[in-house]
Amino acid sequence: MVVLGLTVVVAVVLFAKWRDASNRGGQKPAEPFRIAGNLYYVGANDVTSFLLTGPEGHVLIDGGYPGTAPMIMESIAKLGFKITDVKVLLNSHAHFDHAGGLAELQKASGAELWVSEGDADVVAAGGAGDPFLGPFRFITYLPIFRYPAPRVDHRFKDGAKVRLGPIELTAHVTAGHTPGCTSWSFPVRDGDRELLVVHICSLTLPPALSFGEYPGIRADFERSFRTLRSLPADIWLASHAREFGRWRKFTERANARNPADPFIDRAGYLAYIDTAEMRYRKLIAERK
Q: Among 91, 134, 142, 145, which is most buried by a count of CB atoms within 10 Å?
């Protein structure tokens, strides 16, 4: 009985630690900072979140994991802003690591959530029904793979505008990674210059592309590559910090003439798209 009792205690403790780790995805806090103008980084060390501030309220892009929502709120506070001043929540796509914290952030802020029509049902269901795994999508209905479901206030189509006072963002549905994967473009005023920012949703190839595609996934990727290349991005961001070189650009700020200069990187933006497209074409060729 003693051995059994100890085994149960150890199992409970280990499960709690595992659950906490999975809720955070191994993410650690990262130093929040201004990227340019009214645009700030408030995400974790790899899973990103971005804050756009304005006189009539703020816009927050992406909610991270369920367990990183407190990190995001702490980063917002550290920069001198209030979570209750966040009026708009935007989502790039419906996956656990980018939509998992939306419910808690929505509860803390009272903000309205905007999700594309292609991903809205999955987000509203806490991740259930995600076609990312193709024929194995039934796995997403298991409680262990679900995240707290937020309230989806607005569903939008490609080209939608989201406005909050002087802040205006344009939604570009760059599907493929998910059916409603949304990249956001918006201008920021940095001193005497206006910079166009593009937040790329994701161009990572889903398992569904390899086994049991959802209808139209190839056409989605082809359209997404064209769309992203057509955007005149000065600063580019992504759903994962490693993809756009957050740490390198953050450290280069110290020696830059203007702290925003390291983030002005159209060459890196195009290189990222080129690399993603090469991976896509290679997989398609192998499947043939």
A: 91
Helix 266-287 and helix 217-230, axial crossing angle in degrees, nearest 10: 160
Strands of 112-116's sheet in order across: 33-36, 39-41, 50-52, 58-61, 86-90, 112-116, 154-156
Residue 231 near residue 158 (C-beta atoms within 8 A): no
Identify the residue whose tokens are 């990674």: 177
Q: Which pair of structure tokens corresponds to residue 90?
A: 């935007």
The residue-averaged pLDDT of 68-75 equals: 97
Whether pTM > 0.70 for this model: the answer is: yes
Of 100, 85, 84, nearest in space to 49 by CA: 100
Rounded Cα distance between 195 and 182, Å, is 20
Q: How far apart are alpha carbons 21 and 4 in whole angstroms? A: 25
Contact 41, 197 (CB under 8 A): no
Could you tell me if 45 and 28 are in contact, meaning their C-beta atoms sit under 8 angstroms apart? Answer: yes
Please spell the DSSP secondary structure of 132-186, one letter per residue.
GGGGGGGGGGSGGG--------EEE-TT-EEEETTEEEEEEE--SSSTT-EEEEE
Is the pLDDT at 165 greater than 50, yes or no? yes
Question: 137-162 burial string, b = 16+ CB within 10 Å, else e?
Answer: beebeeeeebbbbbebeebbebebeb
Contacts made by residues 137-143, CB under 8 angstroms, sequence distance 24+:
none
Whole-number percent of the chain with pLDDT over 70: 92
pLDDT confidence of residue 1 = 53
Crossing angle for the helix pair 102-109 and 69-78, to the nearest 10 degrees: 40
User: Six-digit token pair at 137?
Assistant: 């999508």
In single-letter form, the type of residue at position 73 comes to: M
